[in-house]
Amino acid sequence: MKKIELTLKDLKEALSELGERFPNFKDDDLFVLWFLRAYVTDSEDQAAKAISGGSNDKGVDALLIDDASRSVFIVQGKYRQSLGKKSEGRSEVIAFAELARVLNTYSDEQAKEYLKDADLSVADALQKARKKVQKEKYRTWLYFVTTGKVSSVIRKDTQQMVRQASRLARIEVIDGRRAMLLFGDYLDGVAPPVPALELEMEAGAGVTVNGIAQRFDHSEKVESWVFSMKGDAVGKLFDRAGIRLFARNIRGFMGLKTAVNRGMIATLQSEPERFFYFNNGITIVCDEAEQRSSQGRDLLHVGNPQIINGQQTTRTLAEFPRQAAKASVLVKVIRVPRDGNGDSDVFDSLVSKIVAGTNWQNAIKPSDLMSNDRLQIDLERSLRKVGYLYLRKRQSKSEARRITGRKQFFVVTKEELAQAVAGCDLDPHIIRSGREKLFTEELYSQAFPNSDPNYYLPRYRLMREVTYAAKGVPERGYAKWMVLNFMWSHISPLVRGRRNPRAFRRLCEVQEEALVVPLNQIIIDVFIEALKYYRANRGTGDSAIDVSQFFKNRKRHHKLFAEYWDQNVTKARQSAFSRRLGKVKTVIADFDG
Fold it and tell me: How far apart are alpha carbons 38 and 192 in whole angstroms?
């Protein structure tokens, strides 16, 4: 799918949204907060607590100590009002790089002298960081991030300076172009990224491996490697990186009970030495890759890796490490450089085509291919804010709950939302043709026109009420989509604006009797009339159409039924419908919650 080109205006809008949750932060602080969330931590609260800044801050706009990774992260941010225009001065970047020495090599006296005029909170944070670095051997990560630009000479000088301070210290200078790539990944749900992994190539244990296959495409500047890894080494990739390793994958983990995953488990348990022959392997895309040798091991060091094909394999191997140690796995690594000069489009396009071209073990559906669409990711974030866990990827519900922890959410899938919108707004014939059709190019934009929860949730909640009324009565099930369309034509005027959609949603969520009782009565009345409409139009004798086919194979039922309602439903039933609809309207108007 085509990605829109991002601008500084888009970043400003994202910072403005952060500002609604952190109103005490200035724009510069929000920029640093966004960067921490996009590149360092998946916890927004942890990122907010790391913000420092202010006068005499020694260039420390944020300092985060992460015990899990045994790392200290320090950020200095420059939020310029134009993208890539302002050149950052050498002295300021060099002064920031000096923090590597402060943390790693300064004596206590030198540190005390350096911090004598510093802000007290910053000085205290840096002293705590020094203890972690010098006594517990924590890594030092320095990030100078700007929407301006930084010369290549300054970059090289600061990197050399930091390397000389300690082998456990690193600095990244991220300019405006790179920042916008990170912003794109942030919007795509790949945030924070997996910084780096080491892929150890298989050797020994009765297996002879004569080198690896390496290929470089000079026209595309894309480099590839193909080699084998031990199964437990592949499983450890997930142990180290977690769920973020699959952010660009079009599906989530399907659980151990699917047919494919049960087959992998059976192979691991009965004949692990043959796993290599039965499995398609995994495909990894990355920004950087470098082949290295260390202590007799051949390694491929990959930066910003993503497993885009082979999540089920990786997760299953991680679940059975003892058996996986006896198995081998084919690994394909594809390095697509992304330096901010247009390679992002190449990367996105290539990733999509690789996913479609390499996945054989689990069939790809149209809905799978849309799971990483930016609108789907925006919708996932928006729905979570109002208490809904949105499953935009195919995955087991236990996996979804594991990711969200113990938080209570209403669970809704993208297929259900698509059905709700189509059922309310499109010809019922379309939805009866199959929900996957809603994810084709022809209909996708109609099923997902925006990322506003107030657009989707009233439709979704009404669909649930209609489904409930049809439960246990097969004939009603066939007429469900036509009834939903008719009901929405009468409910939609009641749920317009900013307040009423939320009121209707909340009343349905708690099953407020004052709303759901008259609403359910209305829906049942419409079902009764819908089946009368069927019997009046099904035909007679041998040519009579079965109810299961009547609502499926004919178009415009929603329009014809609306005419039938006006012309054939008794005035008494129409009056009862209007009275009950008036009760629904009153309950929505009186809602205060």
Answer: 5
Domains of the chain, by residue range, sit at 8-187, 196-364, 374-590
Cβ pair 414, 382 in contact under 8 A: no
Please tell me the distance from the alpha carbon of residue 535 to that of residue 540, in angstroms, as a whole number.
9
Phi and psi at residue 124, to the nearest 5°: -65, -40
Contacts 24+ apart (CB under 8 A), 383-386: 383/412, 383/453, 383/456, 383/457, 384/409, 385/453, 386/453, 386/457, 386/502, 386/505
Q: Could you give the residue ranges of the DSSP H alpha helices within 288-328? A: 311-319, 321-324
Task: Mention every residue, 6+ apart, whose C-beta is less than 8 A from residue 369.
Answer: 1, 250, 352, 355, 356, 439
Per-residue pLDDT at 440: 93
Task: Quote the tokens at residue 9.
Answer: 């205006």
Question: Residues 126-144: pLDDT tens digits?
Answer: 999 999 999 999 999 999 9
pTM as predicted: 0.70
Q: How many helices (H) and strands (E) does the chain have?
A: 28, 14
In DSSP notation, 178-215 reads HHHHHHHHHHTT--S---EEEEEPP-BTTB-----EEE
Exposure of 107 in the CB half-sphere (CA atoms within 13 A): 2
Task: State how beta strands 222-230 and 213-217 pair.
Answer: antiparallel
Closest CA to 332 of 204, 213, 194: 213
* pLDDT tier, 345 (very low <50, low <70, confident <90, very high otherwise): low
Q: What is the dihedral of CA 532, 535, 536, 541, to 10 degrees?
A: -170
Q: Which amino acid, one-letter code, is at 578?
A: S
Mean pLDDT of 161-177: 93
Confidence of residue 357 (pLDDT cuts 50, 70, 90): low
Distance of alpha carbon 528 from alpha carbon 525, whole angstroms: 5
- Other beta carbons within 10 Å of 306: 22
CATH class of the domain at 8-187: alpha beta
